[in-house]
């Protein structure tokens, strides 16, 4: 079974922009959260899968980066969602590893993995490197 385009867009807009999903249940539909909060971008050196897993980055000063669940944090277009603003990780203070994937997580540590994707280009992170992703560089497709 496949989702319709309308369903994919409405679902992503509810999840990432905290906007009601109309016409589900009562007249108000599926409601947004009272406090939108944030999702957190995690970097991986080994691919996660549909059950989660993967190997999260550990370079010195690494920390997941918060992105607000708003139109200022995420752009939803059809069945695709991408970052609406630049995402910058702290400058690496130690270590050497190649990041190959990213995931959208529900918490700054632990939490649940919602979506994941391979990076367009793997990135070697060594001491002194600051990892940045420009607007639209991190995107996932709902299908």
Poorly predicted sequence stretches spanning 5 or more consecutive residues: none
Tell me the overall shape: elongated
Task: Please state the structural category.
Answer: mainly beta
Fraction in helix: under 10%
Write the layout of secondary structure elements.
Elements: H1 5-17, E1 38-46, E2 55-56, E3 65-68, E4 74-77, E5 80-83, E6 87-88, E7 96-105, E8 113-126, E9 132-133, E10 139-141
Antiparallel strand pairs: 1-2, 1-3, 1-7, 4-5, 5-10, 6-9, 7-8
What does this structure look like?
This protein has 143 residues and is mainly β. It has one domain. The chain is 9% helix and 38% strand. It contains one helix and ten strands. Strands 1, 2, 3, 7 and 8 form a five-stranded antiparallel β-sheet that branches. A three-stranded antiparallel β-sheet has the order 4-5-10, with helices on one face. Strands 6-9 form a two-stranded antiparallel ribbon. Strand 4 and strand 5 form a beta hairpin. It is elongated and about 55 Å long.
Short description:
This protein has one helix and ten strands. By secondary structure, it is mostly beta strands.
Defining traits:
mainly beta, 10 strands, single chain, 1 helix, elongated, 3-stranded antiparallel β-sheet, 9% helix, 143 residues, 5-stranded antiparallel β-sheet
